Amino acid sequence: MKTLNKTPEIQKFRKTKTALLICLITLSLALSSFVWFSDELWPGGYNFFIMLKNNIPFARQMFEKDVYSMPKENLSKPQKIVVTNGERRAVFYNGNSDFNSLHDIIKPFIAETMRSEDKVANSQKVSEEEWFNVLRNDELLDTRSIYVNYSLSYSTSLFAHMIGLRNSWISRDISAVKEFTMAPLSENEMLLYIRDSATNDIFKYHVTYDAAGGFLDAVDSYTKNSDMPAPFSFELNLNKNTEGIGEGVVQKVFLNAMITVSTSSVESAVVESENPLIPGGDRADAISDIFRTKTGITRRYTDSSGVLYFVENYSVLKIYPEGLIEYKADNESMGIEISDESVSLYESLNRAIEFSEKVWSAAAPDEPFNVLVTSDLLESESGEYHFTLDYYYEGVPVTVEASSDNFENMNHAVEIDVKDGKIIKYRHFIRKYEKTDKTVTNPSSIEALDTIYKKYASAEEETQIADIFLSYIEKGDISEKSPVWCAKLQGTDETVY
């Protein structure tokens, strides 16, 4: 029996063939993953694999460099959803038990409309009065509608990214979005109203949508057990400058038209705030490592008030005993680089959120980071962005008004300044909240309004209220906290409570 002579030429050929096979297999897997993870190949803006990579920790780590990875799901949900069914109405806030299931019905419709212009039979600009009429809680009008409020303005392109799209044709009509109203007409027809939050123009789209019947069912289902009136401000005429409320009386306080006013008391949990940040030790070192830019030797010292300093050539990091982490780049070009690919709003937001999660994980290991974006998210030609995040507990927001002799007032849980893809300033007030066995009953918001009216009744200028909401107040003290009614004044950061 003859033995084949394995010449060097044959061995070289076999190695080359093996290398080519490996390359082909790798290319095949890469192309397959592109198909699987491309949102444009999936209907309704939903891609199972994109949702997978955003919800499974190890999968998210695998894809965290993806330019089109979505911001965290809890950061892109609405603040409030209002379902109106003739004379019945129900209001759902982020954190309510039925909120997520209702949002899962709404999101595909918005995504499908923003993706597919061919689904829109016609569109037109309409008056605010038509917007109001679609929403009125009026048995005679027999209205069926769902109103969605995102509490902050997004550029249209960023919002498209956040719901799984790379772009949207609607950006031709609308530059910034915050509010949507949906009205099912039949089993396969819907009306979608979008208010441009930059111009206040309202556009109506007549949309063909195969799952419109699901909206009809949802309107019936989510309002069938509702017996609590929740009128919009415009339904009570609280949004207009109306004279003649009693002889010689002029109304001085006005509400945003889309505020829903409760007429029933609200029971909420009492929580206890804690400062999980230990100024010294391993946690301080872990935080320092996140902010280190490796531009020089880091000098570390603690001053007489207990503030821990990490000083580099071009930046200073401070960790305060009160729980504040503060970073500032003295030279903006030497800030913390979070993106070397793009300085777009979308990219900057994603990377800023990821950075804040790293800081939180170092300061409070194994604790959930429950925050929402609270700054408007609009494009900037200069490449400069200011992001704010705020805590919430079981759907109730936390209003931060922390101050100390050591630091300037802190009005948000997290404040991040980004310029040209670099963090040039960062402030993070570390707090966690635990539920106690106590509860508190707050009066209705309509009663809270009485207090606000009295407070500003003698003011020379009119007072415009942007929003009314229950909130825990965080002043920096370690104590039990009960939610109180808050009023956000239009055009300012001031909150009255």
Structural summary, described in words:
By secondary structure, the protein is of the alpha+beta class. It has four domains: 2-63; 71-230, no CATH class; 231-271 and 435-497, Lipocalin (Beta Barrel), CATH 2.40.128; 278-429, YycH protein, domain 2 (TATA-Binding Protein, 2-Layer Sandwich), CATH 3.30.310. Helix content is 26%, strand content 31%. The chain contains ten helices and 24 strands. The strands form three sheets. Strands 8, 10, 11, 12, 13, 14, 15, 16, 17, 18, 19, 21, 23 and 24 form a 14-stranded mixed beta sheet that branches. Helix 8 (281-291) packs antiparallel against helix 9 (345-363). It is globular and about 75 Å long. Residues 34-71 have low confidence and may be disordered.
What are the salient characteristics of this protein?
497 residues; alpha+beta; Lipocalin; 14-stranded mixed sheet; seven-stranded antiparallel sheet; 26% helix
Poorly predicted runs are 34-71
The whole-number mean of residue pLDDT values reads: 83
The Cα radius of gyration reads: 27 Å
- What is the CA–CA distance across the termini? 97 Å
> Regarding quaternary structure, how should these chains be classified?
single chain
Secondary-structure-derived class: alpha+beta
Number of domains: 4
- Bin the helical content: 25-40%
**H/I helix tally:** 10
